[in-house]
TrEMBL record:
GO biological process: one example: copper ion transport
Pfam assignment, any one: HMA
Sorted UniProt keywords: Chaperone, Copper, Copper transport, Ion transport, Metal-binding, Transport
MF-aspect GO terms: copper chaperone activity; metal ion binding
Residue intervals of the HMA domain: 2-67
Coiled coil residues, start to end: none
Family statement: Belongs to the ATX1 family.
PANTHER family found in the cross-reference section: COPPER TRANSPORT PROTEIN ATOX1 (PTHR46365)
UniProt protein name: Copper metallochaperone
GO cellular component, as recorded: cytosol
Matching Gene3D superfamilies: 3.30.70.100
Length: 72
């Protein structure tokens, strides 16, 4: 079983989405990261031990604005 989180993140270019992807891919337990510039979303799949708040904090460290998030 995996956790699936989606975040609404303000990203203006591929460099922004790339920074988020790189940061999350370094987080232990993250199995998949998909960013979508058009919809301004980041979909993250993790192992069951990675909490929503942990992923959210990692995105926040990139300096991007998080406008919302949810568990799917």
């Amino acid at each position: 079983m995996t956790n699936h989180y989606q975040f609404d993140v303000s990203m203006s270019c591929s460099g922004c989405s790339g920074a988020v992807e790189r940061a999350l891919s370094k987080l232990k337990g993250v199995t998949s990261v998909k960013t979508d510039l058009k919809s301004q979303t980041v979909d993250v799949e993790t192992t069951p031990d990675v909490e929503f708040e942990t992923v959210q904090a990692k995105i926040a460290k990139t300096g991007k604005t998080i406008n919302g998030g949810r568990t799917l």
